[in-house]
Specification:
α1 packs across α8. The protein is mainly alpha-helical and about 450 residues long. About 75% of the residues lie in helices and about 0% in strands. The protein contains 18 helices and no strands. The protein has a single domain, classed as Amino acid/polyamine transporter I (Up-down Bundle). The radius of gyration is 21 Å and the shape is globular. Bound molecules: 4-fluoro-L-phenylalanine. The site of 4-fluoro-L-phenylalanine (PFF) has 16 residues, from α1, α2, α5, α10 and α14. The site of 4-fluoro-L-phenylalanine has 16 residues, from α1, α2, α5, α10 and α14.
């Protein structure tokens, strides 16, 4: 490819699916989904979230993967290249820029929470959770996150692991690790659901998660559900596009997208079913936000036989799930810098890793020494999460849909996807009309109210 290095490709279709599921399944499902659902009042949020995942998110996954595969370059260059081929303005590359900048912001705070999970592996392993009470679990979490130094060390460790993997490229150890560890996390989660189902308030949890109380729905909750669906599917940050660029033509993108969305939603729901029975049994529900998972599951591990071992495994696998997502967050900027031919992959990964660590340190300190700092009424991490999840991702997603639906020839996208004709029609309709319209409606309501 003129002026740019040729990307690597996935070694198999299965390796790609696992890496994409690895990107989607992460802290977003197990750490973020439960507290967003909690903040959004439960069932109504969950149903709207699932509707967004399947009606907007899945068609957009197909769109983003196909743009990546067609471009075969980093998100910015892919968008530039396709726009040029289709005789469109270069401005479309802004969609790629939004992805690269957004993924950089997300990795900066994602790594902070990844650091917390790492520290919980050690905590569980050392028996620190044995017999822990509700007050003990809260005190432990609070003392970790408010400390000015400890969480930064864990944040650095998490970032170092991410950088270490990214600099080896896509076909290194990562592919192998993901194919074993992702299924293991799934099995462990099912086990946890059974455990909390038996020992906690399962019926209350099911009612909370699935019986919608529509009075709790408003424009902000809808936007949070939309943002969460994008975040959870890793959409519109360039990660999926860059993974698409490592795809070969023989992969059926439609089927892959359904597998990714299905696995991702299943993990989020399982996480909810594992956590909320404990939340209700211990009356933990109010105002816990980012600490929810870290204050609930240790109580369960602390009470069960073999809890130290199971807890270690759980937080270990959660860390792995977080790492398979964080590498996909680093990849858009690294692939861009690498492609400019000025930097080696190694240097690019180091530079981005250090810069993201520094930006992330502010989010970490936002729980302690900088807790008085608010931006538009939000904490530092809350603000970063809002502008990426709720603004940049849905807007970039909307422009991606508009680009494919209205500015690329139908034939060229049809050739790229090579889908069965009737599936293609449905998908095309969703991308052309439903996705942009639905995202616009959500934004309209934020500005003008329901
Ligand atoms: N989908 C990941 C999760 O749910 O944890 C987070 C994420 C990864 C978001 C990659 C966005 C992205 F591009």
């Amino acid at each position: 490819m003129a002026g740019a290095k040729q990307h690597a490709h996935w070694s198999s279709r299965w390796a790609f699916i696992m890496a994409a599921v690895g990107s989607a399944v992460g802290l977003g499902n197990i750490w973020k989904f439960p507290y967003e659902a909690n903040a959004g009042g439960g069932g109504a949020f969950v149903l709207v979230y699932l509707a967004f995942v399947f009606l907007i998110g899945t068609p957009l996954l197909v769109a983003e993967l196909s743009l990546g595969r067609r471009g075969q370059l980093s998100p910015i260059r892919s968008m530039e290249k396709i726009a040029k081929e289709e005789g469109r303005t270069n401005w479309w590359s802004l969609v790629g820029w939004s992805g690269v900048i957004g993924s950089f912001i997300v990795i900066s705070f994602y790594s902070v929470v990844g650091g917390w999970t790492l520290s919980y592996v050690v905590e569980a392993f050392s028996g620190g959770m044995t017999g822990i009470t509700k007050e003990g679990a809260e005190a432990h979490f609070n003392s970790l996150v408010t400390n000015p130094v400890t969480p930064l060390v864990w944040h650095a460790a998490f970032m170092a692991i991410t950088v270490g993997i990214v600099l080896r490229g896509v076909e290194g150890g990562l592919e192998k690790a993901v194919t074993i560890l992702m299924p293991a996390l799934f099995v462990l989660l099912v086990g946890l659901v059974i455990y909390s189902g038996v020992t906690g308030e399962f019926t209350a949890a099911v009612n909370f998660l699935f019986a919608p109380d529509w009075s709790k729905m408003n424009a902000d909750v809808a936007l949070n559900a939309l943002g969460q669906s994008f975040f959870s599917l890793s959409l519109a940050l360039g990660s999926i596009m860059v993974y698409g660029s490592y795809l070969t033509k023989d992969v059926n993108i439609g089927k892959a997208a359904i597998t990714i969305a299905g696995a991702d939603s299943a993990v989020a729901i399982l996480a909810g079913l594992a956590i909320f029975p404990i939340v209700f049994a211990f009356d933990l529900s109010v105002g816990k936000e980012e600490g929810l998972v870290f204050m609930t599951l240790p109580i369960a591990f602390g009470q069960m036989t073999g809890g130290a071992v199971i807890g270690t495994f759980f937080f270990g696998l959660l860390t792995v799930a977080a790492i398979t997502s964080s590498i996909s967050l680093l990849e858009p900027s690294v692939s861009y810098l690498e492609e400019t031919d000025k930097l080696s992959r190694k240097k690019a990964a180091f530079i981005i890793g250090i810069a993201a660590f520094l930006l992330g340190s502010l989010s970490s300190l936002g729980f302690g020494v900088l807790s008085d700092v608010t931006i538009f009424g939000k904490s530092i991490i809350g603000f970063k999460s809002y502008i990426t999840n709720n603004l940049m991702m849905p807007l970039a997603g909307m422009f991606m849909a508009l680009f494919i639906g209205w500015f690329i020839s139908r034939k060229s996208i049809m050739d790229e996807l090579a889908m069965n004709e009737s599936w293609f029609r449905i998908w095309y309709f969703m991308i052309k009309y439903i996705c942009p319209f639905a995202i616009l409606v959500v934004f309209y309501n934020i500005v003008f109210g329901f």
